[in-house]
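<amino_acid_chain>
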Amino acid sequence: MASDTAYTTETPVDDVEPGSAFGRTMMAILRIVAGFYFLWAFLDKLFGLGYSTPSARAWINGGSPTSGFLGSRHVGPLASMYRSMAGNTFLDWLFMLGLLGIGVALIVGAGMRIAAVGGVIMLLMMWTASWPMARFNDAGEATGSTNPVVDDHIILALVLIVLAAYHAGNTFGLGRWWTGLSFVQKNRWLI
């Protein structure tokens, strides 16, 4: 018969808790991978590396980083708003600076809180633009949505929150150094 107590004081759980060396290492790896996700999107849109952005539509070749995604929104109550925002020069700059800033902050482990807030806002806006709750677009075609609520935008937003909450920038990153700077101490929102 199994014991009612799942864990005893002898059960070794320290090796998988977020505060353990293994947990901190895994959070650091997750942080760097998440940072690379944002940085890669920036580089692909800037140079047209041929993944989501062909060379001809690269930002350096006069393309708009927002026109492809926002211009093709035909689903959800905000679709027309997002289509109208596509190709806006100010939004192109804001989007690209956001991708770059979030990516670099996560990779180096500094400014984790502001990177998480900025990333969550960006991802939630992308979620509303994707509107995974819709099974069909404005033309009646299937959207291909696999889950009506949770998609990669929501999962990555939660990852960013966890990384900031657990100070993941302190392991294999500049988090401790960054938070020790006097201007960061005076402006705690920069942590």
Remarks:
- The radius of gyration is 20 Å.
- The chain has one domain: 19-137+153-190.
- Confidence is low (pLDDT under 50) at residues 1-9, 11-15.
